[in-house]
Structure formats: structure tokens, C-alpha cells
Amino acid sequence: MMENPSILSHVSLGTNRFAEAVAFYDKVLATFGIGRILDVTEHFPAIAYARAYPEFWIQQPFNGKPAEAANGIHIAFMAKNREEVHAFYEAALAAGGKGDGEPGTRPHYGDAYYGCFVRDLDGHKIEAMAWLAGEVVGE
């Protein structure tokens, strides 16, 4: 196995609207060339997305209780450039998500930071961001 510099194995988000949430993430993550990599719905309602190994899961809560969005928690997806950040934002809104911070600079996160925030169908806060080192990020 090649060495992985990430400190995380994977992240899972619970959903109360499994089929709709999967359709939402199919559209939104496609803006980064990310797709489904593992489908275990034969055993449990869960789908994993990634480029190489299961990193991001959408699933119904294992304990059978309703999924809840946690205040103060969000998931950020790495974009390559501004265009991917904008594509992510537009795809999320078109798929039923709600804007929670339009694409743009966030100087308080660093001079090279460019990102956006949305709420998915269950209210989870998701983000697309790009590090634009060496580029003037101000609009």
C-alpha cells in the first residue's frame, strides 16, 4: 500500500433521506471527479465516495435513530481551483442544498484560501475549498 499522508481514514454523515442524499452527493462530488467507490446497501444503507479508497460515507444511522446535523462540525472537500469551488456550490444548490457562504476568499483562514459553504439535504455543513498558493486570491 502506498503511504497516505492523511490523518483521517474516513468521515460518515448520517441521513434521514438516504436515496435523495445519495443523489445529492452523486451530483456535488462529481464536480471534483469523485464518485461512488463502495456500495454496501445489500447489508446496510451506506455508500462510500472517493478517488482511491472509501473516504466519505453517506448512510442511515446504524442505531436506527434519526440523523442529526451537529452544530460546529463541517466537512471540507479539497478543490483544485476556483472553478471547482464554484461548480461544487452551483451543483449543491441545484441539487437542493442551501447556500451557507458563497464562493470567495476567506482571508482569516489564510491568504491562499478560497472556498464556499453549503448545507446538504439533512442540514450538514459541507465546504469546498482550494489552496491557491502563489495566486492572488482577492476578487
> Beta-sheet strand percentage?
25-35%
Q: Sheet with the most strands?
A: 4 strands, mixed
Order of helix and strand elements from N to C terminus: EHEEEEHEEE
Which structural class fits the helix and strand makeup? alpha/beta
The DSSP helix count reads 2
The radius of gyration over CA amounts to: 15 Å
Helical content class: 10-25%
The best one-word shape is globular
Lateral strand order in the biggest sheet: 1-4-3-2
Distance from first to last alpha carbon: 41 Å
Mean pLDDT: 92
Uncertain residue ranges: none
> Regarding quaternary structure, how should these chains be classified?
single chain
The strand count comes to 8
Properties at a glance:
single chain, 139 residues, alpha/beta, four-stranded mixed beta sheet, 2 helices, globular, Glyas_Bleomycin-R_OHBP_Dase, Glyas_Fos-R_dOase_dom, VOC_core, VOC family protein
Provide a descriptive summary of the structure in words.
Helices cover 19% and strands 32% of the residues. The chain has 139 residues and is of the alpha/beta class. The chain contains two helices and eight strands. The strands form two sheets. Strands 1-4-3-2 form a four-stranded mixed β-sheet, with helices on one face.
